[in-house]
Amino acid sequence: AASVWRLQRCLRLLAHRAMAAKPSACRSVLFVVVAVAGIGRWLLKCPVNANPPDVVVEIGGSGWERKLRSDLLTHGYAHIPGLFKREEVVKLRALAEDFC
Q: Which are the contacts of 1, defined by CB distance < 8 A and separation ≥ 6?
């Protein structure tokens, strides 16, 4: 999200500078390249799973260890409510989105 914001800010700044100065071929090419790169970055975002599997594991419930192992083996992840604070999850999600 932060990289998209930076890219949008850069595009606005380039557009403003290009309009204020005399137009040149180099600036036009630079603007087009930056715009295409921004659109490409936006299109290549991590996809969202429309039908996520049920991977909720309640710690302390019967068979929770078996379910946790099974979910990790099958899907590669498991959801354990209450494991992290909300703020920590937001930071982790941002890191994952930036990685993708």
A: 94, 97, 98
